[in-house]
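<amino_acid_chain>
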Amino acid sequence: MIAVHAGAGYHSTALEAAYKRDLAAACRAGAAALASGGDALAAVTAAIAVLEASAHCNAGRGSNLTLGGTVECDASVMEGDGTFGAVAAAPGIEHPIQAAALLARESRQPLSNGRVRPMMLAGDRAREWALSRSLPAAATPSEAAAMHLTEASQRQWRKYRRIVERSTGAGGASSSRETGGSAGADGSAAEDAEEAAAARLQAKRSRPSGGSGGGGDAAQQHQQQHQQQPSTGDGCLYDTVGCVVLAPGGRVAAGVSSGGIALKTEGRVGEAAIFGAGCWAQEADPGGEPDPAGRQESSGAGQQRQQQQALPAVACSVTGVGERVMRHMLARDCCQAAAAAAAAAATEGDGSPGSAGGAAAGEVPLTDVVAQLLRRTILRGPTPHDCGLLCLRVQPLGSGNASGSSGDSGSGSGIEGGRRQQPETSGQPTEAAAGRLCVAEVAVAHSAQSMAIAHMRCDAAAAAAEAGAAAGKAAGKQAPAVPAPTVHVLRRAADALPVQTYLHGATVRV
């Protein structure tokens, strides 16, 4: 199973088809990495690299520009065994996610003389390190300053610079490098009037803050809130892209990549690079470890304490305002809450995680878990509240729970999740070769205007169907259906609940 997102914020309806193409391509790239023998980390890297190459996503090529008109990217990856790698405020790396993934892999290799390998590199040193590892990157700082710039991002930069300068009266305050033309020189009178009206409207909507801060901080928050409004027209105004993956063998991984908020201060680091904030992954814990002192507890309470230690595999990728997300270590907390909810439900059932009773009795839906987390963290803090969570949870399926039970969950706009399906049987490998049956759930919760997501089965059954399709095509026979990505741009109505949710569940072999 693979799931990807292209951020939570505002997604233009005019570009919806482009978002969907990019997300579907990302799913297929991740699935292809698994099919060729890659691990969960390879699949996450391949999927996010597709989104980094798109001009429609705020990562890599499509990144927002800093106040000085350049691109500085954050990215990180994490595998379920705790392996982590990140780059922060890094210019001039073609695919920041590849650098983060290579840092993660190298962190497993010991160095001589007791030295410790880094798991995060920042700034231009990250670019130099990427070059030293033969990753695609700019050869010089001047080349790095021009990398990833697009006509759309420069147009947006000039537009927001004018808004900020008008609202603060700062004129050329702070960094004043102008990449791609002088600010305001190419704006028509109609465009200037529209921007001024939008700025006045947003100023009226903004609530006064009780904290102290300079004019620059207030201007940045004003711009950040304004950029989510549909009146901007360009549409691709949202944050971090990300991915979660379930690989053969039950391994999980997660990743994020971001250009950060528009007009951010140079050197600013967002949640996409921070351990526990932007992404998190943890393997299943079977629990029930023996007492280290050799004592035995025969009471029901003692047995229950052991059973509560059994946890499912979980992975999460977060999108939102980094300064809000980092305060709550949101990705880690999401995974821990999702795992704890499943463990509690198993204990309240017949006491064996993954059994028919434990999987159903008293279980809190995964969408409720992630939505509640948003409500008690991001929505209780200062504005802006735009945030999204993409969570994958994987639990072994007991023999008594092999039927295709419903896994639907309605969203705020009427979108429904998929069904928990029976595993494919046509052309499927044997039980021993295919692995064990698991229930994989993909849940989304967001508090923005919209969030773009996609998911795709790529387990052993799906791989068998794909192989059967190729063989059937070569033989001129009708081939079994190959699973295709499911893609949505979830749009939350203005009068809807503050959090929109989506759930997809499927029975898979890993």
User: Anything to note?
Assistant: The radius of gyration is 24 Å.
